[in-house]
Amino acid sequence: MSGHSKWATTKYRKGAQDSARAKVFAKIIRQVEVAAREGGSDMTANASLRTMYAKARDSSVPIDTIERAIKRGSGELEGVRYEAISYEGYAPDGVAVIVECLSDNRNRTGAEIRNIFSKNGGSMAEPGAVSWQFERKGTVSVPRTFDEDRVLEVAMEAGAEDLSDDGEQWVVTCAPGDLMSVRAALETAELSPGAGELTMVPTTTVEVTDESEAKRVLRLIEALDDHDDVQNVYANFDIPDSVMAAYGD
Asked: What does pTM read for this prediction?
């Protein structure tokens, strides 16, 4: 199981325990604004906005908050202009890390991300240094209460590439361009899919078996993820489930 899906599960548990809903709302709303700015406010013509709208609703963001974000993004309301920036680096044990940000101040964000890497035993890298170890994919989650064979059948017929089990839900993987059609098929089959998202899936992984080193890796990932400008953190670690579960407790 790849690092990103494991961390996403652990992050979800910690978020629930830490009452981090406000921070989650703020990050999602920023993504909604950017989607509206780049593709317009018409969700029928803007697939990215449809995806972000569904993600916001799945996260229980109020509808009026989402609508204001769309208006800010499309220029109907005044708002801050965010720039998409990606950073690459290494966590302890040579784990590759990609950090995706939305920022209104590139210099400030870059300095702060570099400082987080340095303080947590990692290091920044040049653009392209680690991104070759990842592929962009679309993913949709489905509750594990549904039969695996049924989920697999529906997903594959719609163009999905893979189905995996992250311990708490089925995760359907597909090409980025097939995300909306795969999710629509799962929804039509009444399989209660999540919003779906574009993610970076590692093509190679780094096994981290030492518990102290694994926790160092996870502390860096958590520190990056906690930064207000950071939208997504991807890493190619392979850490034992027992260590992941202990870190999430």
From this structure: 0.80
